[in-house]
Amino acid sequence: MPRSVRRRLRVLVRRQRAPYVVIVRARIVLLASRDNGTSEIARSLGVQPRTVRKWKARFAEDPHVDTLEDQERSGRPRRISLPVRCHLVQLACERPDDDERPKRLRDIWTYASLACALEAKTGERISVSEVGRILRFEHIRPHRVRQWLKSTDPDFDVKARRVCDLYLNPPKGAVVISVDEKPLQVLARKHPTHVDQRDGSVRYEYEYKRHGTQALLAAFDIQTGAVLGRVVPSRNGEALVAFMESLASRYPDQQVYVVWDNLNTHYDGKDARWTKFNERHGGRFHFVYTPKHASWMNQVEIWFSILQRRVIRHGDFNSASAQKKRVLGFISRWNRFECHPFRWTWRADRSHNRRRAA
To answer: When you count CB atoms within 10 A of the terminal residue's CB, does the N or C end of the chain come out lower?
Structure first.
């Protein structure tokens, strides 16, 4: 045995993290190199004589340390052929249709329905769990549904770029305010809400009583994250103008850029409400509109989602005044402890390039 191989074997048998079976095989080879007999080696190591003969013969054929490792095994052959897998992936990437009738029987695939459709198409029956394993391996999730709203605004790129420029590079000395309205339903649970003492989870009654509706008018300062809010009985032009007057008094000297969507009260209307409003304030208000069907570009919508999750969604309000108190209390707490601007990452120029490429 070469001296270098013997040295590596001695290092191997002292290695603590080496597999035990490999250490035993190395000891077999080292003892055999000292002219120890097969039975003697088997007794000293507590193995069968045939195991000693096997590894002595294998090492004699190829005297390298790697010979003591387990050889790669072929494993069980695939039961599901590649064409069947391809058919499954193809089905999962298509809308589910009924071949016998043009009417669609379901809107999304399930693993069970995919297995049935695959059997009808190929005659190959596979389990529901196997369908899931194949699709997970291919990172395909046909059961996942996400909503979106297509904007048909012909000036989408121009308007989107204008809004993004204000978010990313606001004019020096000016403030950029995101303004919108959020409708509120005043719902009270029929029975008290309970907190599970074991894990702290909340359980609330499914049935509820309606106590009317109201609306939240909110303005979000994109540079500081401060929120100005007012809860009104109904959403109309007069209430919005009164709210904007309070916003004007909050920023008495600066140029104010107002970003909002295309709601009817955001336009002049017959009474030219915003033209007159701007005249009263020296023309320092600039109204910037998001593209149609793209109100998600309005940053106050992000703050509305926080309010919805924390206060509205699981709230129990016995009256409109109780809900108003909770909402305004949350705004006060936000401005005092959590006020921060949002990091805007969407870029209009990237969207423009994708739309052109498409």
So the answer is: C
Quote the tokens at residue 33: 């190199």
Tell me which amino acid residue 151 is. Answer: S
d(CA 67, CA 117): 49
Say how far residue 16 (Cα) sits from the centre of its chain.
43
- Name, in order, each residue with C-beta under 8 angstroms of 346's C-beta and a sequence gap of 6 or more: 164, 297
CA angle, corner 113, sides to 110 and 114, nearest 5?
85
Q: Is the pLDDT of residue 106 over 70?
A: no
Residue with tokens 């195991």: 51
Can you list the domains of the chain with their CATH numbers?
Answer: 3-68 (1.10.10), 82-137 (no CATH), 156-351 (3.30.420.10)
Dump the DSSP string for 110-148: -HHHHHHHHHHHHS----HHHHHHHHHHTT--TT-----
Q: Residues 89, 131: contact at Cβ < 8 Å?
A: no
Helix/strand/coil for 73: coil
CA 120 to chain centre: 35
In the 8-state DSSP scheme, what is residue 310? Answer: I
Q: Tell me the per-residue pLDDT of 346-355, one tens digit each, with 9 for 90 and over.
A: 987 765 444 4
Please list, residue by residue across 43-82, b when 16 or more beta carbons sit within 10 angstroms of its beta carbon and e when fewer do: eebebeeebbeebbeebeeeeebebbeeeeeeeeeeebee
* pLDDT tens for each residue of 167-219: 999 999 999 999 999 999 999 999 888 888 888 888 888 899 999 999 999 99
What is the rounded distance in angstroms from the CA atom of residue 256 to the CA atom of residue 264? 21
- Whether 356 has a pLDDT exceeding 70, the answer reads no
